[in-house]
C-alpha cells in the first residue's frame, strides 16, 4: 500500500445523509441524447473525461477559456461519478468548485503529491460514500511512487475507490480510473494485465466500474481484448440504447462520426447499462477538451 502520496482530497470516510438524488440531464445543446435518458430512476450516472491538462501547448485553447464551457457541461450533466484524466492540481480544484456543492474528489498526482497530472475520481456526496481508496503506478513496482519500469512515455497510474451507494441500501462497488500510455503498446498491455490482477483481488460480489483514456481503439487493439479478458464488458456495446458513435479524441474539432473510441467505461458483467453516450457539447464551436466525455447510465444489480 502506498504511503505519503500527498494531496489526496476527500471529506473523510464517514457516513453522510442520504438525500434525494435527481438524475443528470443528458439534454445539453449540442450533446448526444440517448432515447432512454431519464427513464431509469435510481440508476448511477457515470462519466469518463480526459480534461486536457491546463498548460498551453502549441495552439491548445487555454484552460481559462475552456473552463467555463466545461463548467456548463458538468453542471448540466451532474454525473454521480466522474473519472477524469490529465487534470493538473489547480484544474482539479477548479472542477470541484465548478461542480458546486455536494461533490468531492479523490486523487493524487502521478508524480506524487500535487505534481503532474491526476487520475481524480469525483463523486456526488449525496449519493456515494467512499469506504476505501488507493493509488498505484503502472509498473513492475506499482506501490513505488512515480515508478515507470515498462518504458512508458509518461508516468501512468491508477486511482480506485470502493464506494457505498447510499440510494441503494449501501450497496458497495468499485470505481477504477486510469490513463494508459499514448506511445508504448507494451506498456499499455502490461498495464491492462496489472489492472486485471488488481480487480481479481477485490470482493467478487461487488460490481466494478472502470473509467479511463486507454489510448487504444475499442475492437481494434489487444489492450481492449485484454481488458475484456479481465472479466469486464464494454458499456457501449451492451447498452440498451446509445448516442451516435464518434471518435472520442476530437482535438477541439467537430466530432468525427464513427471515429476511434479510445475512452471507455467498462463494468463487471452483472451491471446493466441503460444507455451510453458520447457527449458532443460545445459553445460557439469551442470544446471543453480535446477529448469528448463518455457517459453511461448504470444499474448495479
Structure description:
This protein is of the alpha+beta class. It has one domain: Endonuclease/exonuclease/phosphatase (Deoxyribonuclease I, Chain A), CATH 3.60.10.10. Helix content is 18%, strand content 25%. It has five helices and 13 strands. Strands 3-4-2-1-13-12-10 form a seven-stranded mixed β-sheet. A six-stranded mixed β-sheet has the order 5-6-7-8-11-9. Helix 1 packs parallel to helix 2 (89-99) and helix 3 (185-200) packs parallel to helix 4 (222-229). The protein is globular, with a radius of gyration of 17 Å. It starts with 43 loop residues before the first strand and ends with a strand.
Features:
301 residues; Deoxyribonuclease I, Chain A; six-stranded mixed sheet; 5 helices; 18% helix; disordered N terminus
Summarize the structure.
This protein is α+β, with helices and mostly antiparallel strands and 301 residues long.
Helices and strands, with pairings:
Elements: E1 44-50, H1 63-77, E2 81-85, H2 89-99, E3 103-106, E4 121-124, E5 128-137, E6 157-165, E7 171-179, H3 185-200, E8 208-213, H4 222-229, E9 233-234, H5 235-238, E10 241-242, E11 263-267, E12 272-278, E13 294-299
Parallel strand pairs: 1-2, 7-8, 10-12
Antiparallel strand pairs: 1-13, 2-4, 3-4, 5-6, 6-7, 8-11, 9-11, 12-13
Overall pLDDT score:
89
CATH topology: Deoxyribonuclease I, Chain A
Helix content, binned percent: 10-25%
Distance from first to last alpha carbon: 30 Å
CATH level-two architecture: 4-Layer Sandwich
Q: What characterizes the major β-sheet? A: 7 strands, mixed
Q: Runs with pLDDT <50, length 5+?
A: 1-6, 11-36
Shape estimate: globular
Number of domains: 1
| CATH fourth-tier homologous superfamily | Endonuclease/exonuclease/phosphatase
Count of runs of 4 or more consecutive helical residues: 5
Q: What is the CATH first-level class name?
A: Alpha Beta
Structural class: alpha+beta
List the secondary-structure elements in sequence, H or E.
Answer: EHEHEEEEEHEHEHEEEE
Strand order of the largest sheet: 3-4-2-1-13-12-10
The Rg value, from CA coordinates, equals: 17 Å
Amino acid at each position: 500500500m502506498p504511503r505519503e502520496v500527498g494531496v489526496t482530497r476527500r471529506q473523510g470516510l464517514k457516513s453522510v445523509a442520504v438525500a434525494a438524488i435527481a438524475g443528470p440531464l443528458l439534454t445539453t445543446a449540442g450533446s448526444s441524447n440517448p432515447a432512454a435518458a431519464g427513464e431509469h430512476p435510481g440508476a448511477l450516472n457515470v462519466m469518463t473525461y480526459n480534461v486536457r491538462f491546463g498548460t498551453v501547448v502549441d495552439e491548445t485553447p487555454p484552460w481559462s477559456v475552456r473552463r467555463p464551457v466545461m463548467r456548463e457541461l458538468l453542471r448540466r450533466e451532474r454525473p454521480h461519478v466522474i473519472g477524469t484524466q490529465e487534470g493538473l492540481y489547480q484544474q482539479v480544484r477548479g472542477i470541484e468548485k465548478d461542480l458546486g456543492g455536494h461533490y468531492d474528489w479523490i486523487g493524487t498526482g502521478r508524480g506524487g503529491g500535487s505534481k503532474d497530472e491526476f487520475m481524480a475520481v469525483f463523486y456526488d456526496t449525496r449519493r456515494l460514500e467512499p469506504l476505501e481508496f488507493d493509488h498505484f503506478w503502472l509498473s513492475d513496482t506499482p506501490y513505488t511512487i512515480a515508478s515507470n519500469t515498462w518504458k512508458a512515455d509518461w508516468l501512468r497510474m491508477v486511482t480506485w475507490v470502493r464506494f457505498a451507494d447510499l440510494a441503494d441500501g449501501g450497496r458497495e462497488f468499485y470505481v477504477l480510473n486510469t490513463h494508459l500510455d499514448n506511445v508504448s503498446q507494451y506498456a499499455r498491455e502490461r498495464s491492462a494485465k496489472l489492472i486485471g490482477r488488481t480487480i481479481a483481488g477485490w470482493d467478487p460480489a461487488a460490481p466494478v466500474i472502470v473509467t479511463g483514456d486507454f489510448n487504444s481503439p475499442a475492437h481494434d487493439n489487444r489492450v481492449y481484448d485484454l481488458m475484456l479478458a479481465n472479466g469486464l464488458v464494454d458499456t457501449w456495446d451492451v447498452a440498451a440504447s446509445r448516442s451516435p458513435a464518434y471518435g472520442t479524441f476530437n482535438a477541439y474539432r467537430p466530432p468525427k462520426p464513427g471515429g476511434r473510441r479510445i475512452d471507455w467505461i467498462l463494468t463487471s458483467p452483472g451491471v446493466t447499462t441503460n444507455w451510453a453516450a458520447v457527449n458532443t457539447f460545445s459553445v460557439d464551436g469551442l470544446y471543453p477538451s480535446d477529448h469528448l466525455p463518455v457517459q453511461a447510465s448504470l444499474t448495479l444489480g
